[in-house]
Amino acid sequence: MTGLLFGTGGTPHSSETNTTIDGIRRIAELGLGCMEVEFVQGVRMGEAGARLVAEVATRERVKLSAHAPYFINLNAHEPEKIRASQDRIIQTARIAALCGAESIVFHAAFYLGDPPEKTYSRAKESLGEVMHQLKRENNRVWIRPEIMGKPSQFGNLEEILNLCVELEGVAPCIDFAHGHARTGAFNSYPEFASILQQVEERLGKAALDNMHIHVSGIAYGEKGEKKHLTLKESDFQYAELLQALKDYDAQGMVICESPNLEEDALLLQETYNTLPG
Ligand SMILES: [Zn+2]
Fold first, then answer.
1. DSSP 8-state secondary structure symbol assigned to residue 233
2. Ligand 1 centroid to 155 CA: how many Å?
């Protein structure tokens, strides 16, 4: 993949219908480059449907990723809930592969009052089993735990990068809005650059060539993320983020999750294209 592609989390609002296929067509019409298929309420797409999605995406030259169901907690205290969480990741990866998607993203875990180290080792063990299974199936989709927006959620930058270092086939989903909302920090050029620097130092230059990024405006408070906003309603310094991405020559997908989806995706793409560098 060369350069950064911009697109939406889910089917654009201006699509003819809210199906994935019409979403892909609309992304191409708008001149955007990618789309994240949302399985957040469950993986309801069948194999035949996924193959059709792959055909249309190839024809329209739209790159795809998929978002796994929200109901995942790799630190659940009941073994059956861990197993159900693992199954949801595996199911998403199977359908994503048939769709021709290169990555899936998911929300890994909640601390549930456990110490972060204990949560980390549980999440790593459970995700390790998932990776083992996917390898047996020869499934090469990148499995990407996401940086989360609330301090009660497992998934700060360090935790996510550690998982990527320790588990083959795992790569980060850097959600810059969540990174900002989690602490109120990470909203300036030097802070964005420091994140990219850490990605490069921990995972190598190849990781900057294969980035998966979420961006939106965001409202937050002491407990972190409250809700997504449009970029212009929010305090998020997206132009500084885009400049850092350009300066670090980051490549891959930027998925916009603002409530106005394609409007902010286009704003991000246009801003990126007019920046120096
Ligand atoms: Zn997410």
1. G
2. 11
Per-residue HEC secondary structure of 140-200 comes to: CCEEEEECCCCCCEECCHHHHHHHHHHCCCECCEEEHHHHHHHHCCCCCHHHHHHHHHHHH
pTM comes to 0.96
CA of 157 to the centre of ligand 1 (A): 14
C-alpha of residue 253 to centroid of ligand 1, in Å: 14
Ligand 1 centroid – CA 276 distance (Å): 30
Place of tokens 């199977």: 94
Q: How far is the CA of 174 from the centre of ligand 1 (A)?
A: 10
pLDDT at 119 over 60: yes
CA 221 to CA 214: how far, in whole Å?
20
CA of residue 182 to ligand 1 center, whole Å: 14
Average pLDDT over residues 178-194: 96
Predicted confidence band at 276 (pLDDT cuts at 50, 70, 90)?
Answer: confident
